[in-house]
Amino acid sequence: MEQSKIDRINFLAKKSRTEELTPEEKEEQALLRREYIDSFKRSLVGQLENTYIVDEKGNKKKVERRKKQ
After folding, report:
1. Is it the case that residue 52 has pLDDT exceeding 90?
2. What is the dihedral of CA 50, 55, 60, 64, to 10 degrees?
3. CA angle 64–53–50, rounded 5-degree value
4. pTM (2 decimals)?
5. At what angle are helices 23-49 and 3-18 packed, to 10 degrees?
6. DSSP assignments along 31-45, one per residue
7. CA-wise closest residue to 12 among 29, 27, 31, 33
């Protein structure tokens, strides 16, 4: 996510603490937050897909996703 969008999220958050946001600003804030969360999740999943656990014997095991119940 671009730094300018993160700066905009922070600006809107700060503004919402001091005054009421307009409906357009609230919608923009929600969209930017969703984009930020999705970006964060993609980054985390990418990192976990390249993560291995090494046991005490030195064996490497790839981290696997849990099965949904």
Report:
1. yes
2. -50
3. 60
4. 0.73
5. 130
6. HHHHHHHHHHHHHHH
7. 29
